[in-house]
């Protein structure tokens, strides 16, 4: 799991530019599954059949990460940018980034004023990202172009996977390369000679800009039950709005509700029960500040009972996200247990 997540976050994949991630996943999985294809929006859709008749389970993990895109190159070589996905302007200044130009990656920094200038500034001001710029060390616009950078190039955080403490790690793009890793390892580790039904795995694109890939993929799949595997924000730090209902190291998240989904009671209680039967630590999640691919999956094909397996994380959508490796691994165990536990679509019926 650790090696896989390191490899996945090393690949650039801002919204709409997930090509490197999709290519990696396609090459890794194509010879292990019954079908593997990429649709017009870039979603990788993988099918693995179990040995026995049973439900069709669709599981989606999104490949895109929040990032930026080059909008304009100023005469002095500084780069203006646009957001891809949800960002907090308060944490952008002085962060390290990589601009992925035609000639290769160009490291840079989102510029900020010197601390010596603070006395001349309005310190209560939160600068809008449109006032910000990225500095890749170029002296002028011509040098930027010589470096292979132009409008439309993607920009990602410049953060590597790092272990910290006994069980934790930080890096960028854990949202949702962690979900991708969970889904990959479930495909590779599950003994499908014991599975009833079919797994249709969706590695979706453009989740961070409106669940677009999952919506496109779901339109081509007739699923009996669906899951998203994604990260979720914990509430175990001291800020005033935190209520300590989700915590790092407390287990895999089983979603009951977010702003995009009221999870099927049959699905989330099934996951809760199989977690308890298999000794998998879990925590129930009700958090309205987040949405996942399940928000698109549950409305497809006349309605699909759906749920979410959540990898708890701190500092989501920042340059440094943190997870507990035990939670990460327990999410994979929970997905495997779901595959072994499903037998018939009636298990997930509304009544």
When the domains are counted, the total is 2
Helix segment count? 8
| Total E-strand runs | 17
Strand order of the largest sheet: 1-2-12-3-13-16-14-15
The helix content, as a percent range, equals: 10-25%
Tell me about the largest β-sheet. 8 strands, mixed
List unreliable stretches of 5+ residues.
none
What does this protein structure show overall?
- It is a single chain.
- The chain has 351 residues and is α+β, with helices and mostly antiparallel strands.
- The chain has 2 domains: 241 residues, Zn peptidases (Aminopeptidase), CATH 3.40.630; 91 residues, Peptidase M42, domain 2 (Elongation Factor Tu (Ef-tu), domain 3, Beta Barrel).
- The protein contains 8 helices and 17 strands.
- It is globular and about 65 Å long.
- The chain starts with a helix and ends in a 10-residue tail after the last helix.
- The relative contact order is 0.19.
Write the layout of secondary structure elements.
Elements: H1 2-9, H2 19-29, E1 35-38, E2 44-49, E3 52-62, E4 67-73, E5 79-84, E6 96-101, E7 104-110, E8 134-135, H3 141-146, E9 154-157, E10 162-164, E11 168-171, H4 174-189, E12 196-204, H5 212-218, E13 225-233, E14 252-257, H6 265-277, E15 282-286, H7 294-297, E16 306-313, E17 321-324, H8 325-341
Parallel strand pairs: 3-12, 3-13, 13-16, 14-15
Antiparallel strand pairs: 1-2, 2-12, 4-5, 4-9, 6-7, 6-9, 7-8, 10-11, 11-17, 14-16
Helix pairs in contact: 1-4, 4-8, 6-8
